[in-house]
Q: What sequence folds into this?
């Protein structure tokens, strides 16, 4: 990795301290915060801070990242109490007082330090019937979907999810009931319910209309507030509630 | 045990709206049995009910009644917001309704207080 340009105080940033006080979660489920001093750099991201600690202060620190540009969804952590994608979170935005507390995502099993076990998160996507199932084959012509149709617009609003787990980690309902499918899986179900090519609409509605599905959401909105892609899973969950209620009235559920 | 969030992850209006709706709902639900019991005094005749109503005609009960009016106003507006979110086309977390609910609750509280002292 190219060496980051050393941060130097100037007129614009002279209010910043030259060192960040960083507390990082070490250990698994049982663990504690360890403190590190990390040099402040210009345009520094939280992921830069974690990388600095691992490369210069303690190589035993475990964390996960891949793309560094907000596409892969693997570097999400809890930064000063809020779940965020660390590669695109500037230190200047979250550590005004020069202090950072970096912990693994909530609501997921901690493997070690900042790495969590995401399998339950993705298993719930499968439980919400998150797989596309079409009826056309490669020999058929392309499906034509009007970009201005209601369904396409609804699917568009949720389709950019990168599976980072920030919404899932931010949701209190996930903390309260372990089997709740969570905002990401329900958002995925909502995009597929609005995919006119998909053939599993009824099964999917049944999968998400149970006690642990869309009706468990209390509309706290933390998922929508914290999603780094500005997706609003609450919209999809509300849409699923509406469709499930309609299907129940017509005896289709 | 997995890690869970603290207040820092909950610092936004939609979460406060959830809290107000939940607390007001629980408080009103807790009041309902008392309400039914009070109404039930009518079974013992008009005099028994009147006597109970006269008994409640004092400052502490009036303050409680004022609290109930405020809770009802907040819970009703919060409920309308949730219905709009779930049954109308998506328009964000409808934070305008959160502000409106607070304003309506405050107005209802002040109007009821004025009626009490007037």
A:
């Amino acid at each position: 990795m190219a060496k980051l340009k050393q941060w130097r105080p100037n007129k614009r940033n002279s209010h910043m301290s030259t060192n960040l006080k960083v507390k990082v979660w070490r250990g698994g489920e049982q663990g504690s915060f360890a403190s590190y001093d990390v040099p402040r750099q210009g345009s520094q991201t939280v992921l830069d801070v974690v990388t600095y600690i691992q490369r210069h202060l303690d190589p035993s620190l475990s964390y996960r990242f891949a793309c560094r540009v907000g596409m892969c969804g693997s570097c999400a952590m809890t930064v000063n109490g809020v779940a965020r994608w660390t590669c695109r979170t500037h230190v200047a935005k979250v550590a005004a007082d020069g202090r950072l507390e970096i912990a693994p995502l909530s609501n997921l099993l901690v493997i070690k330090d900042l790495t969590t076990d995401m399998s339950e998160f993705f298993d719930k996507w499968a439980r919400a019937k998150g797989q596309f199932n079409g009826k056309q084959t490669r020999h058929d012509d392309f499906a034509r979907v009007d970009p201005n149709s209601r369904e396409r617009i609804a699917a568009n609003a949720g389709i950019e999810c990168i599976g980072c787990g920030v919404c899932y980690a931010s949701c209190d309902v996930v903390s309260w009931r372990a089997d709740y499918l969570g905002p990401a899986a329900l958002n995925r179900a909502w995009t597929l319910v609005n995919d006119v090519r998909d053939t599993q609409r009824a099964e999917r509605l049944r999968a998400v209309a149970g006690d642990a599905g869309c009706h468990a959401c209390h509309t706290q909105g933390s998922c929508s507030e914290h999603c780094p892609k500005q997706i609003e899973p609450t919209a999809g969950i509300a849409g699923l509630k509406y469709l499930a209620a309609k299907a129940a009235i017509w005896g289709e559920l | 045990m997995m890690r869970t969030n603290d207040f820092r992850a909950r610092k936004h209006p939609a979460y406060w709206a959830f809290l107000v709706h939940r607390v007001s709902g629980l408080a009103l639900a807790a009041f309902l049995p008392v309400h039914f019991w009070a109404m039930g005094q009518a079974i013992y005749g008009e005099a028994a009910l009147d006597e109970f109503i006269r008994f409640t005609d004092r400052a502490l009960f009036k303050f409680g009644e004022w609290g109930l009016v405020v809770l009802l106003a907040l819970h009703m507006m919060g409920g309308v917001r949730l219905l709009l979110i779930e049954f109308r086309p998506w328009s964000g977390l409808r934070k305008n309704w959160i502000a409106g609910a607070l304003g309506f609750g405050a107005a209802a509280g002040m109007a009821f207080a004025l009626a009490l002292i007037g």
